[in-house]
Amino acid sequence: MRYSSFLYFFAVLAMIDLPVQCFSEGIFGKLVKLATGGGGGDSKKSRFGKFGNKNQGNHPFGYPTTKLSNGVHFPLVGMGVGNMDPQLVSAMVSQGLKDDKNIRLIDTAHVTQNEWLVAKGIVEGVERLVSGDAEEKIEVHVTTKIWYTHLGYERTLLGAEDILNNFKEAIDHPNVDLKLHVLLHWPRCYENIPWMDCEGEEANLPVEVKKAGKAPHLDPHAWKGSWKALEELLADPQNPVASIGVSNFHRKELEELTSIASVHPQIVETDTWSLLYDPLLIEFCHKRGIHIIAYHLMNGVVSKTRYTPFASHHLLSIANDVTTDMRDKGILEKDSEDITVPQIVLAWLVQHSISVIPRTTDLYHLQENSAASLAQIPSMDDERVQVVAQSVEALISGVDLTEDAFVTLTFHAKSKDVFLYWHDPEFGGEIEVARIEKGKSFEESSHPGHQFRVYYDGDRDDDAKMHLITVSGNYGEHRHFEL
After folding, report:
1. Which residues contact 81 (CB under 8 A, 6 or more apart)?
2. Are the beta carbons of 104 and 176 closer than 8 angstroms?
């Protein structure tokens, strides 16, 4: 398989000491040394295995975390609710907080007008968890964002005040320890982005917002005043703001921000494609200890597996290997669900200390991609990390890998000579693969569902004596057939 900019990407990822990181000592580790000089129910037993233990694995909080530059422990697995149907937001947040999912990070935005629904869901979920215990407090993290219509010092303060009011129910609840992380959603409104309506959105703002400052789409540096407002918000001990950051900023804007800021951003939220196409942004963040949250992973990356079949097959092979290892070690029960490709990609990012915030309205997928589920997946070794990295690059770029993954087949002619043919069920044709002499074996690579026909010596024209073999199993597995 090909090697690419992801090698550089992962060298960058490990440039600082991270609590959760790749433990491999392969090519990524060598580059780093060179660069640095050195189901919805309450049951704690779910269909995905043994989840729900609050002291799972090596995660003292019960879920994977990293430490922000200001010392705040931040979840690596969350859920996005930004554009979710308002009727579902509270219920999904509440479900996500359950012990069998253990999600403690919710990602939303002020522009979606659902922050109060997130707060409602947090309260409902926490009240279920504490079961009337007046002393217990549950820590929940929320990232939300100031929209570009509220850029500028005074406008950002208004937006922040509205955010705090929206989360008041959760802030005031005696069992909720709310940690708010407030980001600037965009550095400006862009006239060349079709869905952005700079003048129209400005015209529809409330009068008090318009009076609070100059229209930000007319001032490309309005975000600088916004950052000053966020710094004041962070310094105020009377509110639950735990960190501040930016979303959808380019590296040059980040460089300018850090040159003028009293407090550097602790978080950058960016589209997953930036991991491939903007490695300098990733390098900038990691050199300065800025934590990365990746969004648009499911629809933007994982959903594209049909366009890159080779990469998809390699990811399926890794998922199967990890499933087998986890079952052998007793981490997964024998009858539990297999590890999936989305889980592998999410776990790969989490292993490199990047927070993920998949969005779903399906309880099955909420469980599948939850903190509790991903926390159980062991760190992948160097070889698996490389395969996942190259496969994800193929998914993002749309350029498939040059080599496929297979099911390995061994055919052994036990009692007589045999003729082996590959059968095309769609068109009904056959292609001769091999003549296997008695006592000999033949190895072939194939795919699940492919069919082979076996004829014994002298019986080629007798279909009644033909033996049909359908390939079962998963990519990366080996199947043996006695003929």
Report:
1. 89, 92, 93, 106, 107, 108, 112, 114, 118, 359
2. no
Residue type, 34: L
Percent over 90 (pLDDT), the chain: 66
Helix (H) or strand (E) holding 313: helix 309-328
DSSP SS3 for 459 = coil
CA separation, residue 308 to residues 272, 313, 396 (Å): 17, 9, 10
Q: Which residues contact 119 (CB under 8 A, 6 or more apart)?
A: 166, 167, 168, 169, 170, 171
What domains are there in the chain, each with its CATH number? 5-397 (3.20.20.100), 407-482 (2.60.40.780)
pLDDT above 70 for 457: no
Q: Torsions phi, psi of 95, nearest 5?
A: -65, -40
The pLDDT value recorded for residue 66 is: 95
pTM: 0.83
Report the half-sphere exposure of 327 (CA within 13 A, side-chain side). 14
Give the pLDDT score at 462. 59
- 482 backbone dihedrals φ, ψ, rounded to 5°: -90, 120
